[in-house]
Amino acid sequence: MKYLYLYFSIAIRHNYFRLSEYIFIKVKLLTMSLNKARIRQLHSLFAPIMLLPVILTLITGSLFQIAVITGKSEEFLWLLEWHRGKFGRINLEMIYPFLNAFGLLMLAVTGITMWFQTRPRKNKSNTSKS
User: Fold this and answer.
1) pLDDT tens digit string along 116-125?
2) Which of 17, 27, 43, 71 has a CA-to-CA distance to 8 between 20 and 30 Å?
3) Burial environment of residue 13 by CB neighbours within 10 A (0 to 12, 13 to 18, 19 or more)
4) Is residue 91 helix, strand or coil?
5) Rounded distance, CA 7 to CA 114, Å?
6) CA distance 51 to 49
7) Can you say whether the dihedral through the CA atoms of 38, 119, 11, 105 is positive or negative?
């Protein structure tokens, strides 16, 4: 594995690959180095932590949009505050969107990685007969 990484690093320095190929190789090496159990562990760690902020953001954003449509947005400004991460005395407005984005990105990456690892491989013998 270490030699494979070294080979690709040298190839990149000498411009043997385009950037898209380099990114694909890096992702492939990353997924090879992380085993399935570790990825599932990361995913199961982030999923319960991210459930509350995502549901809260989804519900408050939708309800506030309904309030705007009905013309009663002034009465429901507290929904917008919760949506942005201001929870009474606890003010997370500066970092709440970034924490939400980071958590969702981690869930997406680990979920897609698990999906790629569990996809069935096509049998080459079946494709060569046709």
Assistant:
1) 877 666 666 5
2) 43
3) exposed
4) strand
5) 26
6) 6
7) negative
